[in-house]
């Protein structure tokens, strides 16, 4: 969590900013973080960061185009010192992945003080803004990053029809009405850019989750209709993914680049359905295999050992990771991964 002095400094910066530019990761945690900060200061604009080798160059072009007076990076796992040097204006980076120490950056990451801390960027953004009318956005972003926030009881009192009391994370996300909104915050970031931008613009103005779920406004109806269209595609893919589950500890599911990208969502839901399994969801694209990994086992160290000598990279959190491996090295990586799982299982059995 952020310290009081950090909260005050970032809040003051937001209040004084005339043209801030917010870069955010393309998932629900990143989106919720952006919405909280933007709705607080009501200035500037946001830009979702595409996962590619050119993402820093793309961000620098956006900075040159919009000439912001301050730049925020939200839920972005990695940037280079060269990028930080080239921003040439105040740069605020709020994140919760593996810490990186750079110069010329106002950097906020709970893992600097506690390597085991797990606090989504959304939770820190809500510390800064504390707008009660946006608590529903903060709850969605936290739950989407598999984190039950400390204000959840207060949220349940305000929206008892969205989340029952004594709901654990799995029940909240996959069995409660708020889970629809959690999934929506992921899915509205998919598809053509013109559709994505339209949805995000509406979200900056929505005043209540009931506008969406109860369809009380035209804007809410638009968002729900868009979500339902994308969700149909997801459910069809989830049905196929379930067929990959066998007696093996490891579940591996492949799908192609011609289909919509639901890699992390599939990994999360399969993990919820089959908590004792290790989940590996793989999407082949442009000569690479992009994958999401989940498991009760310590997946992050298993992944790093499996990548030794492999043309690829990856990382993330202890039980949830992402990786990209060159297709011609994929089989060797997969064999490494299977062996590392066996080793981890044997070690677990001895404890």
Report on this model:
The chain has 351 residues and is of the alpha/beta class. The protein folds into 2 domains: 4-174, inorganic pyrophosphatase (n-terminal core); 244-350, Diaminopimelate Epimerase, Chain A, domain 1. It has 15 helices and 10 strands. It has helices at 4-16, 28-41, 55-66, 81-87, 121-129, 135-144, 152-158, 169-175, 178-187, 193-203, 210-213, 218-242, 263-273, 299-306, 330-350, and strands at residues 20-25, 45-49, 70-74, 91-94, 106-108, 250-256, 278-285, 288-294, 312-316, 320-326. The protein has a 5-stranded parallel beta sheet with strand order 2-1-3-4-5, with helices on both faces. It has a 5-stranded mixed beta sheet with strand order 6-7-8-10-9, sandwiched between helices. Helix 4 (81-87) links the parallel strand 3 and strand 4. The protein is globular, with a radius of gyration of 20 Å. The chain starts with a helix and ends with a helix. The model has no long low-confidence stretch (mean pLDDT 95).
Order of helices and strands: HEHEHEHEEHHHHHHHHEHEEHEEH
Reported CATH architecture of the largest domain: Alpha-Beta Complex
The CATH topology label of the largest domain is inorganic pyrophosphatase (n-terminal core)
Largest sheet: 5 strands, parallel
**Strand order in the sheet with the most strands:** 2-1-3-4-5
Number of strands: 10
Q: Identify the CATH class of the largest domain.
A: Alpha Beta
Question: What is the percentage of strand-forming residues?
Answer: 15-25%
Q: What is the residue-averaged pLDDT?
A: 95
Overall, the morphology is globular
Structural class: alpha/beta
Total number of helices: 15
The proportion of residues forming helix, as a percent range, comes to 40-55%
Whole-Å distance between the termini? 32 Å
CA-atom Rg in angstroms = 20 Å
């Amino acid at each position: 969590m952020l310290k009081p002095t950090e909260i005050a400094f970032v809040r003051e910066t937001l209040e004084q900013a005339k043209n801030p530019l917010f870069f955010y990761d393309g998932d629900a945690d990143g989106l919720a973080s952006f919405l909280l900060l933007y709705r607080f200061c009501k200035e500037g604009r946001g830009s979702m960061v595409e996962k590619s080798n050119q993402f820093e160059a793309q961000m620098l072009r956006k900075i040159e185009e919009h000439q912001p007076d301050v730049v925020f990076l939200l839920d972005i796992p990695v940037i280079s010192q060269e990028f930080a040097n080239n921003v040439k204006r105040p740069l605020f980076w709020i994140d919760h992945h593996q810490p990186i120490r750079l110069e010329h950056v106002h950097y906020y990451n709970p893992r600097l003080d506690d390597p085991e801390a797990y606090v989504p960027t959304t939770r820190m953004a809500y510390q800064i803004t504390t707008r009660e009318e946006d608590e529903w956005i903060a709850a969605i972003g936290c739950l989407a990053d598999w984190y039950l926030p400390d204000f959840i009881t207060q949220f349940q009192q305000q929206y008892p029809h969205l989340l029952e009391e004594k709901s654990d994370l799995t029940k909240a996300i996959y069995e409660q009405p708020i889970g629809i909104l959690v999934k929506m915050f992921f899915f509205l970031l998919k598809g053509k850019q013109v559709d994505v931008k339209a949805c995000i613009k509406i979200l900056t103005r929505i005043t209540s989750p009931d506008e969406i779920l109860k369809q009380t406004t035209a804007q809410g109806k638009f968002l729900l209709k868009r979500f339902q269209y994308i969700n149909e595609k997801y459910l069809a893919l989830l049905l196929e993914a379930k067929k990959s589950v066998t007696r093996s500890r490891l579940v591996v599911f492949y799908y192609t680049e011609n289909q919509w990208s639901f890699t992390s969502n599939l990994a999360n839901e399969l993990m919820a359905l089959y908590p004792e399994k290790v989940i590996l969801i793989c999407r082949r694209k442009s000569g690479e295999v992009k994958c999401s990994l989940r498991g009760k086992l310590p997946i992050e160290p298993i992944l790093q050992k499996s990548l030794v000598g492999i043309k690829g990279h990856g990382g993330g959190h202890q039980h949830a990771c992402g990786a990209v491996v060159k297709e011609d090295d994929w089989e060797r990586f997969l064999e490494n991964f299977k062996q590392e799982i066996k080793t981890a299982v044997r070690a677990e059995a001895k404890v």
